[in-house]
Amino acid sequence: MERGPGPAGARRALGRLVEAVLASRGEANGVFDILAVLQAQDSEEVQEAVRACSRLFGALLERGELFVGQLPPEEVVLAGSQGATRKYKVWMRHRYHSCCNRLAELLAHPSFQVKELALETLMKFVQLEGTHPLEKPKWEDNYLFPRELFKSVVRGLLSPEDDGSLLLSRFREYLEHDDIRYHAMQAATDTVARVTDQHLEVSPTFWNNAFSLLAAVSLPPREPDVCSFYVKRAAEPSDKWKVVHLKEHRKAFQAMWLGFLKHKLPLGLYKKVLVILHDSILPHLAQPTLMIDFLTSAYDVGGAVSLLALNGLFILIHEHNLEYPDFYRKLYGLLEPSIFHVKYRARFFHLVDLFLSSSHLPAYLVAAFAKRLSHLALTAPPEALLMVLPFICNLLRRHPACRVLVHRPNGPELDADPYDPTEEDPAKSRALESSLWELQTLQQHYHPEVSKAASAINQALSVPEVSIAPLLELTAYEIFERDLKKKRPEPVPLEFLPPQGLLGRHDSLCSQLFTLS
Fold first, then answer.
1. What pLDDT does 5 receive?
2. d(Cα 365, Cα 351) in Å, to the nearest integer?
3. Is 141 left (phi over 0), alpha (psi -120 to 50) or beta?
4. Cβ-based burial of 441 (10 A; exposed 0-12, middle 13-18, buried ≥19)
5. How far apart are CA 512 and CA 517, in angstroms?
6. Average pLDDT of the chain?
């Protein structure tokens, strides 16, 4: 089998073809040979062909040798009586169109070097088409941006089959420009709608690619003094252009996220979205309250997703005056024995502490949370108790009306506790009629630090709260290591009677099988 010319030979051959086509229109058919190499199997040859196309069509765009306007069918123009120049420009514009289509396909090439080079070339064409438009302006100072070409780039990035995270990280640098960011948001909205309309079941790969692109879009906090445009223009930006106004960016940002979040997403993506929601999404929405449907449906997912959804709802309630009367009832419902054993325990209690930070909460509500946590603490591990006990004491510090849970000398007997742990509504749990007898029980805990923390309620609670931040990430391993480093007093005997056998009897069967040393 005859071997190909190799990358070096391909470079020289393609270079000669580019020079010939640019030098004479009579050599225009050499474009076919260049485009053919874009289909090669060897990745290095493909890269050389991409570079050749970049040089060729970049020069043709700058020289104005591509047809400008609504592109007519190639066959009609070539068969007609138009001049040779018009025929050439229409014909070459079709070749340019074929080149761009192939470059968009190469965004899914197995070689990352090919994908990266194809992306750079397409973005170069976006810049050149913006400077030398291939469509006629409808009016003076009309803002022209190669939307269709740019949409093909975004569609290539949001592949349903290939993980595009690495290429999307390369694309992120283009999003620093205001015009690219604005049109990327519109193109992403269009692509998500198109893919979801065409497929009954969208692949997780597509959703992950889409999230990577959406999460990379970051809006400025205020209207910039000077716009940063990727597409350079001779004239100054006009105030009539939507792309120069932050409020238009916020509208596009909102449409992009709402169009993405209205679909059923993989569970892992719910978590990723909710983690960045309060910092990177809500502050930039034109109407943040439109997120209520997504947040309520996310709460129904359960587990960590429910907690993170309540974080977003809390922001809407406090910063955007959202009426959501079931917020604390749903938060109360998340207090289950599993919260002390899951990996998101630290974030959970950090957020619960934030939600219960207001001193204007009714006493019955705070009492219900304190009692529920005390009840759950009976089966919690030591590392969780060292965090939750100061947490409960902080609740009593913030709300003096709840201290009756501790100072109730004639309270109900243990077997007649009025608190109903199965009640879902904290207002009906009768927690304020009960007492925190669980804390007194924990004063007899086997771990001395837990016993000491539970004994804090025996003294008057100090006014400043105890920071629980250092305790949120406390693990059993850290407690064990800390205990080992403690200085011990003089050794004491652990057994004052010498053992007579494995189970206490010298002549037992176990003593015949095992010998105590």
1. 57
2. 16
3. left
4. middle
5. 13
6. 86
